[in-house]
Amino acid sequence: MASIHLPPITTPTSENRLQIQQDARPLPQISVGQLLEARVLGRLDGERLLISIQEQSLVARTAIPLQAGENIRLRVEGLNPLLTLVLLERSAGEPAHIGEALQSMRADPLALAKSLAGLLEALDPENPGALRTLPAKGDAGRILQLVRSLVFSKNTVENPLWIKDSLQSLGLLLESDIKKELQKGSSTGSFQERAVSLKELLLNLIEALRRHGDGEVGKGLSQKLSLFEGALKNIENLQVLNVIFQEQEGKYLLQIPFLLSGRMTTADVFVYVDQENQKRKKGSEGYHVVFALHMDALGDIMIQARWKGKKLGCLIECGSDEIRDFIRPSLAGLAERLGALGFQTGEMTCTVKKDLGQAREEFYQRELSLTAVDLFA
Asked: Which residues pair with 252 in a beta bridge?
């Protein structure tokens, strides 16, 4: 189980300092003047952020504009009544961090899928080349179980909340979930039963490998770090982009991993919220969702769904007449199932679009440009 340490309400810290309340499980072997390596997991609000030190997730108060994914070096300045840390070094600033995430996603849209596939292969006990030595017993099994739950398959398709659950398991909702609990005034104990995310497991494992990378654990250390750091970086890139997308354009990017003929890939799902209607009247929000994917049997597919209130319409674009004729008979059944859920179905159609693969790629690159497009006009 994961444990989160929550600070009390105090006055804002000095410009280059972080303050943390140490509870019944303080950081071990901490002394004044000691240097600590930490990683920023994400911001909770204007003054609070979630950081990881010595495999523990802690909530710190600071005025420093740190962002998710930054590695920082700290010096212990004081222990009581609050653990006070002075910032000595930090990684690249916010603009560089955002640019790096955008560049990475543009260069390799399947980076997350490749990382998950790499974890499945490297940690599968039935694989002769699987990693056998990790710092803590059960690390491989916990990560393997989580990754398997993230992949859309016959085992997960029956769960109606699978997308939400997968976002939490991946770690994309970690900071927002904690922020909600903080706003409700939850205590530290309420977090101890929280299921740990893949992001947290990877972060803790990387820190443990760096500290104890000797003996049996140290065998193949560079290979292990490359695998786990790459997966963590891809999760954080997606997280950083969604924060910026939400703030600037009112949209979200979800990547849904699934297996096709033994090959890991993703369906890219862009969700757009009609923010103007949302501001004017609660309950009048409009949503536009675009699914973009490539399938072995059906080729390139793009699905656009629009709904407002209980009215929902759907346009499916495919690359040939044969694929269109295969999909069309299923639309009536889809409309019937949506009706059973209380939706009023609008237009439900499937059309052929030439050069759909190129159009899908251009759409993806355009949406990663942070140039807003009015999709509700």
From this structure: 271
The three-state DSSP-derived secondary structure of the chain is CCCEECCCCCCCCCCCEEEECCCCCCCCCCCCCCEEEEEEEEECCCCEEEEEECCEEEEEEECCCCCCCCEEEEEEEECCCCEEEEEEEECCCHHHHHHHHHHHHHHCCCHHHHHHHHHHHHHCCCCCCCCCCCCCCCHHHHHHHHHHHHCECCCCCCCCCHHHHHHHHHCCCHHHHHHHHHHCCCCHHHHCCCCCCHHHHHHHHHHHHHHCCCCCCCCCHHHHHHHHHHHHHHHHHHHHHHHHHHHHHCEEEEEEEEEECCEEEEEEEEEEECHHHHHHCCCCCEEEEEEEEEECCCEEEEEEEEEECCEEEEEEEECCHHHHHHHHHHHHHHHHHHHHCCCEEEEEEEEECCCHHHHHHHHHHHHCCCCCCCCCC
Instruction: Pick the closest to residue 79 from 35, 34, 32 (CA basis).
Output: 32
- For residue 159, being part of any structural domain is answered with yes
Strand partners, 187: none
- Boundary (domain end) residue, out of 216, 241, 266: 241
Instruction: Report residue 261 CA to chain centroid gap.
Output: 25
| 189-213 residue pLDDT tens | 455 556 788 988 888 888 878 776 6
Of 225, 237, 304, nearest to 272 by C-alpha is 304
What are 69-122's pLDDT values in tens digits?
788 889 999 888 888 999 988 765 556 667 777 888 888 888 998 999 989 888
For 293, phi then psi, to 5°, come to -155, 165
CATH code, domain with 53: 2.40.50
Q: Domain range spanning residue 119?
A: 94-241
Q: How many domains, the chain?
A: 3
Q: Are residues 36 and 79 in the same domain?
A: yes
Strand pairing partners for 63? none
pLDDT band at 322 (very low <50, low <70, confident <90, very high): very high
Cα 53 to chain centroid, rounded = 20
* Confidence tier at 318 by pLDDT (50, 70, 90): very high
Residues 23 and 43 in one domain: yes
